[in-house]
Automatic annotation (TrEMBL):
Belongs to the NAD(P)-dependent epimerase/dehydratase family. It holds the Pfam family Epimerase. One of its GO terms (biological process) is L-threonine catabolic process. GO terms for molecular function: L-threonine 3-dehydrogenase activity. This is L-threonine dehydrogenase. Residues 34-198 form the NAD-dependent epimerase/dehydratase domain.
Amino acid sequence: MMLRNLVRTSVKLSFQLSLRAYSVEAIKKRPPKILITGGLGQLGVECAKYLREKYGRNQVILSDIIKPTEEIVSDGPYMFVDILDFKGLQKIVVDHRVDWLIHFSALLSAIGEQNVSLAVRVNIEGMHNVIELAKQYKLRIFVPSTIGAFGPDSPRNPTPNVTIQRPRTIYGVSKVHAELLGEYYHYKFGLDFRCLRFPGGNYQCYLKPETRLPMMHVRDALRALSEFLEVPNEKLIRRVYNVTAMSFTPEELADAMSKYLPELRISYQPDSRQDIADSWPQVFDDSEARRDWDWRHELDLDDLVKLMLKEVKEKIIVK
Ligand SMILES: NC(=O)c1ccc[n+]([C@@H]2O[C@H](COP(=O)([O-])OP(=O)(O)OC[C@H]3O[C@@H](n4cnc5c(N)ncnc54)[C@H](O)[C@@H]3O)[C@@H](O)[C@H]2O)c1
């Protein structure tokens, strides 16, 4: 019995020692070199901007399989990386002495349902590649998950951090797989795996007006990601946390927008995505993130509407 306890204690100790210690002080002295996969999507470009401002332009390498615009190339380092090519990924990690890997490559829910076998390859095989690499080179690895990692058997209002998941989309299934694999590698090998479940980021008019979903502005999502990556390991009770800012329905969003756009009219055309949304959480309980590492959202529905209108106006003026 004692021997078993001793073995257990030494396993725990060596596991704790093998976790790379990135204190906030250490990060200030030598900012991390960060690789973002799937970086030319909705989150990646904004994320690179955010982290380059914080750690320096050349500290963040954006990568994807898409040909970049001139603007992307002039903003900072960009490389071709196919998530299915282990050796290619490995070369970049070694050549550029990567410390943190932010893994955004994925096929999302609607596209994934249209091409399940490709979603399995990109979302599941791709995850296998990055997690092995992170283990081999002791990288801190961030993998976003989603409210889509829950399903019709999950409690929906509110959805706690730990509960029944059982999603019914390949996207959701691949995200549960990523969460569990990451936790397993953390407990087995001491991998510094971190995962936030983000709510939706944009307005979806292909839903019924009364469909309630958790939401957050991308600026809050990126701040959550960046703050979460700097939390000392000893504060993290979990490797996977729900985060959110608010919950609203398309109708409530339209009401909030009509304060600024009184002439706004919306038509609702629910399609197959309604069924997916009906299986997702309505209210996301992120109290554990608030408790463990002080997560606080800054932007509520009114701020979101103001920012959205400002951004659309700027885009129209530029064009
Ligand atoms: N946007 C959201 O509201 C939201 C919410 C929750 C979670 N997430 C997660 O955040 C991550 C990024 O989301 P997003 O909205 O930017 O997605 P996105 O679809 O806009 O971008 C995904 C990127 O992955 C790339 N990709 C596809 N196949 C690849 C391959 N073989 N190799 C390398 N890259 C490949 C695509 O080219 C694309 O640029 C995803 O993992 C997603 O699940 C996003």
